[in-house]
Amino acid sequence: MNLIEIWHYHRPALAKIYLDTLNAGLVTSTTIFAPRRAGKTSFLLKDLMPAAKAAGYTVAYVDLWQTRLSLGVSIVRALEHALEPKNTIESLVAKLHTPIKKLQAKADVGIAKFEGEVELADSAKKVQTEIALQIDILVEALCKKKPILLLIDEAQELAKTKENEAVATALRTTITKNQNRLRVVFTGSSRTQLAHVFSNSNAPLYSTGSAIADFPQLGRDFVEYIAEQFEASTSRTLSIEPAWQAFLAFKQQPEPFLVGIVDMVLNPSVTLDDAMKAVAEKIAHTENHEGAWAALDATQKALVRMIAQDPSLKPFSKTVILKLRGIIGIESLEVTHVQRAMSKLSNVAAKSPRDIYEFENEAFAQWVRTLAD
């Protein structure tokens, strides 16, 4: 019995929606947004990947947030892994340290043959060019066998450095060249940073990721499922309504909720309230919410508090300006001051397509609501 699997709440209908969208042919890729700990990765690996394989895809998965390698190398390794059995392409990592002026890249994979030659002016250009070439070679090799679904987790990393943007440009070229057989699902946990990758007119993957779509939240049925597993594992009862309220307090993010449930499984004396409070405090300490809070000025702190309590806040309205004046004690506060404060908070909270503000890190928002002085 797989003890991890029994706690995973499968979402086959949602996986089918994504696959049907990609199979329809109108788009070659899609981009999913949800805050961290919302269950995106579990869904990709345990729902979408198996469904895609069953539908005839070869699936390659890469997490750009957790990797310690360059993003390009990580993508190449994911594609190489998907291309098993082993092919005759040389190891990219070994070649990156070879001081050569000219690189000859060859591969003979099944009936497919590839050959490319590039002049390399310097080491940085060499690395970027070779990564682009290897991504292209591997994707073409995979596409000759089966349609390929490339899952790229935490895609906002593609816009953080010039090197990463070069990888994104290589991906864009490969997606365009292989659009008949290649489909890509990008995910990200920062709406603002995803916009830098896909939505801004000068973004490296502008329009490639289709519209940035919100990842559907888990509902009460998820809590009911976890309660069933809890009772099966412990012979104890987990009351649905309090558990649902605890899940809502974490903005329906399964990871912190499940951490608390595990604590209750291991320690029968721990109550639901105590377990969830401990999780919130641990997250706050790990992510240094106090430091992030201390870095804000008085106006920014007031705005963050107000947005945390009311995501539909209109920060430039007369009512909010008057309220801010009272909170921070500055009668001369004007709209321009608030505009400057909000621009500096763009990496803390950003406007969503639903016309409400969403925190880039929902755990910080929860900390602001409950723990900040």
Structure description:
By secondary structure, this protein is of the alpha/beta class. It folds into 3 domains: 5-214, Rossmann fold (3-Layer(aba) Sandwich); 220-286, no CATH class; 289-370, Arc Repressor Mutant, subunit A. It contains 16 helices and 9 strands. It has helices spanning 12-23, 40-54, 71-82, 92-95, 123-145, 162-177, 191-199, 220-234, 240-249, 254-266, 272-286, 289-294, 298-309, 318-328, 335-344, 362-370; strands spanning 29-33, 58-63, 102-109, 112-119, 148-153, 182-188, 212-214, 349-351, 357-359. The strands form 3 sheets. Strands 2-5-6-1-7 form a 5-stranded parallel beta sheet, sandwiched between helices. A two-stranded antiparallel sheet has the order 3-4. Strands 8-9 form a two-stranded antiparallel ribbon. Helix 10 packs across helix 11. The longest helix has 23 residues, at 123-145. It is globular, with a radius of gyration of 24 Å. The model is unreliable at 87-121 (pLDDT under 50).
